[in-house]
Amino acid sequence: MTTTGPLLRVEHLGIDLHQRRQEPRTLVRDVTFDLAPGEALGLVGESGSGKSLTSRAVIRLLPRNAHTRGTFAFEGEDIQTMGRERLIRYLSRDVAMIFQNPRAHINPVHTLGDFLTEPLTCHLGLTHAQAEERLLPLLADIGITDGPRRLSQYPHQLSGGLLQRMMIASALVAEPRLLLADEPTTALDVTTQQDVMAILDEQRRDRNLAMLFVTHDLELATAVCDRITVMYAGTIVEQRPATDLHTGRRHPYTAGLLAARPGLGEPGTRLPVIPGRPAAAHETGEGCPFAPRCAFAEDRCRTERPELRPDTDGAVACHRADELDGDLDRPKEAAL
Ligand SMILES: Nc1ncnc2c1ncn2[C@@H]1O[C@H](COP(=O)(O)OP(=O)(O)OP(=O)(O)O)[C@@H](O)[C@H]1O
Ligand SMILES: [Mg+2]
Hints:
Blueprint: E1 8-17, E2 25-35, E3 40-44, H1 51-57, E4 66-74, E5 77-78, H2 84-94, E6 95-98, H3 112-123, H4 128-141, H5 147-151, H6 160-172, E7 178-182, H7 190-206, E8 210-215, H8 218-224, E9 227-232, E10 235-241, H9 245-248, H10 252-259, H11 299-303, E11 309-310, E12 315-316, H12 321-324, H13 332-335
Parallel strand pairs: 3-8, 3-9, 6-7, 7-8
Antiparallel strand pairs: 1-2, 1-4, 4-5, 9-10, 10-12, 11-12
Helix pairs in contact: 3-4, 3-6, 6-7
Adenosine-5'-triphosphate binds at residues 17, 27, 45, 47-53, 63, 216, 280.
């Protein structure tokens, strides 16, 4: 992987929601990360932690009343100040997005052929026939061998898994360099999930495509990503290479997520859970956002917000990280 700089750099991203006659509400706070060309970064956390908003900020697809702070740049170019033409080129050529529910993003009254050829005819100036010619080998690559028939069909004629493969094809066809995948398999049944994820992973690696992979499934993220960024309450609490996460995690929240995986304990034993419920960014006070649920929290954690500090192979936002030295598996009772 040769690179002169990151493909995507997000620095101190904040997202506030402005509502009439109400104080602005913070949804995302001080999020910083970068993504190298060809690298896969997993954005992981519980529901409401700000993963989707963070990934949507990168394509300027936020609610109208959301105001952003900080900077985000694609190959060093500020995404927020891109002019109309450059923005269209960025959105149609440089980056592509795969969403959770393909049915909500594919127009039900058009054929899949229309859906898939549109980016090529509109933005690359190909004819419909040329576009189809380019599409068929791509469909074959992702396991769709009867391409011509599929292209003549309507979305309701395809299963969820097949439709998500079509979505992957539409994301790949313009040969983007950055893929944003937001829970791309969550709406599918388990076996279909595995098939679709394997295709996405294989295609991404073959094409040396960078990916921002949004998921609540830490296990899945570690399987398909190079690095993991763990979010909690709209902010980043830990970043680490995927291969080191299990042994090298230093944040009590990451340890809690890892311990809460089904299938780890003895049959019949209770699954460890993180007590309490996830907090939204605007609900958190001065201290560490995770402190109210943390077995290791002490006074300082409740009054002073920890910064995300780089360490040997990643970064962690925990006042007690050095002192605990990764010893986060002690039973809760012993930790208190
Ligand atoms: N359009 C909106 N208006 C108001 N609040 C919003 C809006 N979109 C998101 N939020 C709030 O912002 C916070 C972060 O939302 P986001 O969708 O980024 O979470 P997420 O991590 O993707 O969660 P999930 O795993 O459920 O998809 C949540 O508290 C959510 O309720
Ligand atoms: Mg989401």
